């Protein structure tokens, strides 16, 4: 049996469970039944969005293949040779950005951060976590990085590619101190979208069909985030590492080529986006994507990490991933990539630490 050695950058915290929020304020997340579906309610909004443009999974909370507890996560990690897994946000963490009131919004995110930290500290598995960031709240985000930066299980911060409105962007210089703090403390920036979360998602918002909102929402949001990050007026801080999750990769090489062409012709003083990408950004390819292997070769095999997405409906098994990408990126190289882009996976203590 293979010794567990994979580092999983994309597994999910079951942050919607009622017991986590039972003692919190009335506006705290609640699991409700709506038209025979279990959904999450935050304030007056239902998640994932059940109907209309930009709608989420029609199964609601029922699309999970497991509860995401140690009892089901442990056999999944063992069967897939996963030594360490990074808990990305679940329904609450991916939806909090839709809350309009800034105090309520950051209060919810701050409580999420505490719960994620506690979950990792208590687990018998080697789990790590990420701070939630808010593009609409850069000062709070910076304070949150400083509040948790010494947590031994912390490996990075996660931000949505787009915010509640189009006005809050990752290219805004107001967000530079947050990026600088992440780089200074060896914390990776994970960029992770979600469908049906009542926030600005231009391509998903053009459709009221989950097949299309899911296919286009993640990719469309990440296009905006990538353009914003790679063309920032003040650039990306030296040492900042960015990991793009769950958006596919086949579209990235032609997208970078188009950005490069426009920068070369129209903005001679700006860094070439593909060069910025090569020095700062990793991707987590999906073996089910037809052109993923081609994209990995184009982007560089040193910019690749593994993400399972457990326990979501489109969970990736390690065997499938290695069959698709193992020749391009063998296990040792994959491990080295991940430790370079998420350096605290190699530093943080824990059971079975990397």
TrEMBL record:
Family matches, as Gene3D superfamilies: Metal-dependent hydrolases (3.20.20.140)
Matches recorded under InterPro entries: ACMSD, Amidohydro-rel, Metal_Hydrolase
Keyword Lyase set for record: yes
Pfam family, one: Amidohydro_2
Keyword Plastid on entry: no
Alphabetically ordered keywords of this record: Lyase
Domain Amidohydrolase-related: 8-330
PANTHER family xref list: 2-AMINO-3-CARBOXYLMUCONATE-6-SEMIALDEHYDE DECARBOXYLASE, ISO-OROTATE DECARBOXYLASE (EUROFUNG)
The name this protein goes by in its record: Amidohydrolase family protein
Organism: Sphaerisporangium aureirubrum
Species lineage: Bacteria, Bacillati, Actinomycetota, Actinomycetes, Streptosporangiales
């Amino acid at each position: 049996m293979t010794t567990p050695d994979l580092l999983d950058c994309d597994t999910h915290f079951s942050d919607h469970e009622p017991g986590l929020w039972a003692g919190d304020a009335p506006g705290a997340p609640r699991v409700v039944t709506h038209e025979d579906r279990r959904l999450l309610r935050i304030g007056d909004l239902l998640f994932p969005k059940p109907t209309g443009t930009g709608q989420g999974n029609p199964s609601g909370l029922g699309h999970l293949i497991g509860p995401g507890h140690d009892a089901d996560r442990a056999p999944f990690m063992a069967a897939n040779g996963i030594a360490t897994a990074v808990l990305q946000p679940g329904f609450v963490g991916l939806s909090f950005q839709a809350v309009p009131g800034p105090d309520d919004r950051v209060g919810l995110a701050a409580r999420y951060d505490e719960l994620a930290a506690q979950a990792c500290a208590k687990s018998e598995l080697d789990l790590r976590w990420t701070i939630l960031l808010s593009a609409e709240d850069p000062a709070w985000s910076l304070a949150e990085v400083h509040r948790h930066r010494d947590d031994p299980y912390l490996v990075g911060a996660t931000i949505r590619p787009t915010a509640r409105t189009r006005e809050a962007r990752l290219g805004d210089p107001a967000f530079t101190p947050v990026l600088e703090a992440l780089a200074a403390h060896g914390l990776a920036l994970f960029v992770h979208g979600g469908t049906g979360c009542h926030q600005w998602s231009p391509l998903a918002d053009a459709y009221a069909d989950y097949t299309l909102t899911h296919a286009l929402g993640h990719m469309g949001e990440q296009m905006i985030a990538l353009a914003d990050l790679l063309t920032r007026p003040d650039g990306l801080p030296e040492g900042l590492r960015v990991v793009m999750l769950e958006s596919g990769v086949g579209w990235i090489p032609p997208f970078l080529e188009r950005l490069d062409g426009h920068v070369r012709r129209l903005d001679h003083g700006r860094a070439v986006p593909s060069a910025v990408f090569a020095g700062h950004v990793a991707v987590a390819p999906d073996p089910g994507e037809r052109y993923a292997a081609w994209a990995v070769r184009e982007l560089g095999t040193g910019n690749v990490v593994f993400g399972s997405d457990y326990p979501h409906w489109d969970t990736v098994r390690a065997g499938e991933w290695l069959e698709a990408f193992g020749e391009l990126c063998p296990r040792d190289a994959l491990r080295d990539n991940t430790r370079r882009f998420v350096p605290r996976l190699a530093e943080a203590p824990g059971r079975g630490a990397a």
